[in-house]
Task: inverse folding
């Protein structure tokens, strides 16, 4: 009986098998992550907005495509009331790599020039008459309030017939701002539940506590797409708050490296000068 000699597997077969194994592992991991996320949502009861206080913007100012989409969102939905008085159109276009013809065609209001600051055309007197107060400038809003605050603000509007604008907000109750993104997100109602707690005098107090949102009218975007829309918008506002933050972080790495090398050289020089003393 002839013994069959073992032969090494050809490299192309080995590579193909490795790809198959890695692919299966990736699919299995993706399925596990998806299942875990679904299980977490299911464990929370699948209640829309129940976890709004723990939601994070998760933005990245290095994502240029996201910043471009955010600039488009701001120009289409925010510029009618809010300004960016410390940012020029030309600076934004340069940083975000937006060609000037596209800038003038799709982002800038008619009559504006690239060298001008990004200002709203709404008169302050009209804004105060319509909303009760002048809409704030958003140049430094991300730095003043934080990215998570802005993300939570734009995702927690709900219908409130008692308000003049017909809308209210969980992050900023009694806000004067109408829900300008309702056509994208849709309309939702806030559902409250009763909770009992004991006051300082020992008496039991019953109060209404927010439980979840209930969708009453769909919007043009799904919940996930609307979250991405808001995330891009907040990312753009984060960039506007400090347009040079990417360059600052990159330069900071070299500064730290220089300080480390300089410290090492200073230590060598100290050792050389003091060797006779010791």
Result:
């Amino acid at each position: 009986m002839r013994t069959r000699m073992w032969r090494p597997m050809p490299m192309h077969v080995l590579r193909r098998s490795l790809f198959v194994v890695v692919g299966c592992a990736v699919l299995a991991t993706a399925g596990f992550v998806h299942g875990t996320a679904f299980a977490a949502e299911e464990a929370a009861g699948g209640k829309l907005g129940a976890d709004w206080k723990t939601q994070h913007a998760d933005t990245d100012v290095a994502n240029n495509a996201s910043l471009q989409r955010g600039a488009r969102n701001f120009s289409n939905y925010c510029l009618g009331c809010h300004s960016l008085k410390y940012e020029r159109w030309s600076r934004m276009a340069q940083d975000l790599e937006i060609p000037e013809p596209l800038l003038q065609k799709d982002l800038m209001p008619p009559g504006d020039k690239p060298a001008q600051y990004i200002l709203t055309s709404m008169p302050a007197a009209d804004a105060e008459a319509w909303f009760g107060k002048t809409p704030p400038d958003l140049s430094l809003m991300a730095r003043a309030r934080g990215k998570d605050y802005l993300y939570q603000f734009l995702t927690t509007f709900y219908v409130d017939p008692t308000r003049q604008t017909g809308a209210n907000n969980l992050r900023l109750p009694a806000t004067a701002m109408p829900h300008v993104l309702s056509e994208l997100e849709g309309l939702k109602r806030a559902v409250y539940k009763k909770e009992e707690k004991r006051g300082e005098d020992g008496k039991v107090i019953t109060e209404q506590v927010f439980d979840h949102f209930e969708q009453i009218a769909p919007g043009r975007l799904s919940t996930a797409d609307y979250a991405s829309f808001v995330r891009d918008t907040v990312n753009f506002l984060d960039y506007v708050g400090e347009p040079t933050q990417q360059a600052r972080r990159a330069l900071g790495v070299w500064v730290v490296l220089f300080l480390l090398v300089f410290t090492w050289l200073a230590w060598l020089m100290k050792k050389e000068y003091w060797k006779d003393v010791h």
